[in-house]
Structure formats: structure tokens, C-alpha cells
Design goal:
Blueprint (H helix, E strand, L loop, with lengths): L6 H18 L3 E6 L2 H4 L1 H16 L3 E6 L2 H10 L6 E2 L2 E2 L3 H25 L4 E5 L6 E5 L8 E6 L2 H8 L3 E5 L1 E3 L5 E3 L2 H12 L3 E6 L17 E2 L4 H6 L7 H13 L4 E6 L5 H7 L6 E3 L1
Parallel strand pairs: 1-2, 1-11, 2-8, 5-8, 11-13, 12-14
Antiparallel strand pairs: 3-4, 6-7, 9-10, 13-14
Amino acid sequence: MDEKLTNAQRAKVLIEALPYIQDYNGKIIVVKYGGNAMINEELKRAVMGDIVLLSLIGIKVVLVHGGGPEINEMLKKIGKESEFKNGLRVTDSETAEVVQMVLAGKISKNLVSLIGSMGGKAIGLSGMDAHMIEAKKIDEELGYVGEITNVDPTAILDVLDKGYIPVISTVGFDRDGNCYNINADTAASRIAGTLKAESLISMTDIAGLLRDKDDPGTLIPVVNVSEAPQLVREGIISGGMIPKVDCCIEAIRRGVKKVFIIDGRIPHSILIETLTDEGIGTMFV
């Protein structure tokens, strides 16, 4: 049941958010958007609403998105099997075209449109625009899966300076004009580091880092980067979380002040993390 807030309570909520609004005003935060929050329409609207709100109170939000499930769907439509090695999509030239089409053509434009419908101003950019994300092959066997060699933030900064929210699809390029499929966590981490962002918020389908993966009550609220290897040895960071955490650590090493892994399945989790005392996920410092 929805609790109805009194006007006095509403005012109290806004006053409590004030120090955070002041702290973040004029600063850049990068949001890596993926997982269930991308698939569920209600959550998608909540996330875009949060981003519009943050933008309107003077925070420079950069949205970096993935889109694995929609790529799988499109490949299935054209009768192409999805193949993965070590969690990475094997990407031949035809698959690279599909990745570019789905990420930069469909998902990016839909998000820009949704932000617009909620009163925000957004512009879709891909890593191929203005030489933003330069890449090379990680491994011949994986085909056009890119390892980032350089990020040029000029276009992102230009768009932010004009008051728009950049919506970035994670495809890269090389000097021969090839298109590369880039992991969205990796791209968000490198972009946040290059921009020296105040924070990077990574939306996932879990509550954060848990001491016991089956008990949400064992959430670890703060992790110092130096503690991560021990958490891997203890098995607390394992499986698909290892590359995510590696990206968080990489962002900190590149100059991002704070990195959060938050549960994207909770409505308004971005606002809870950014503008309240409690926070919601795991913060890396």
C-alpha cells in the first residue's frame, strides 16, 4: 500500500536531500544501466525519471547502457545462434552489425525518447561517434569483441555543456573502420575514469556484495579496493561478479571518487543511493 506523505514530510525529504544535491551540483556521475531494470518497463520509467530529476537539479548525468537480451532476440530473428566464450559474446562481422544496430539504433533512441517524454533532454551517442571509444580485438577466437585502447571524452563533454544527457551505446571502432562489441561495465568504468567522474553507479540484478549470497541481510556496504583480493579468495566475490568488481576497482584507480553497485530491481535505487544517508548497495572507495 502506498503511504501518503504529508506536505511537512515531503518538505523534510527535500531538506534531507539538500546536502547531497549541493555536493553533486555541477559534478559528473556515470550510470551503467543494464539487467532487469532495462527489461521491466515500469523499472525503466523509474530509472529514466531518476536521471531526469538528477539532471534538473544540476547534476551532469552520463548514461551508459548495455543490451544483451535484445541482441540475443534480434540474432534469433535472423536465425543466428548466440555463442559465448568465458561470458563474452563471440562476434563475427555480421553479429557486430546486429550489435551496432540494436544498441545504437534501437535501444539508445528508445531511451532518448523516454527521457524526452519525461521532460529531460538527451542525445544518443555511440562509441563510434567522434572517435569516442577506440578498440582492438581481445582475442581472434572472439572476433570483434573489443578491448578499449582509448577513450576521447570530447563529444560527451560538449553534450553535457549544452545541458543534454548523453546516452552512450557501447560499440567501439578501430582505424580500419571495424565495429566492436564492448562490454558495457568495462566501457562505463573507462568513461567514468576519463571524465574523472564524482561517482559511477552500476545497476545490477543483485543487492550488492553479500557475505552470504542467499542472505540480503549480509550486504557489505563499503569495500576498500585493497580488500577486494581477500574477498575473491573467500569466494564472496565470485563468478560473474569478478569482472564487475574489476571494473569498479579500475574506475577508482582511474580517478573516480566513489563507485556503487546497486540493485536496479528496486524502484528509484539511483535516488536512494545518491540523495539519502542510507544508500542502498555496496560502495567501493
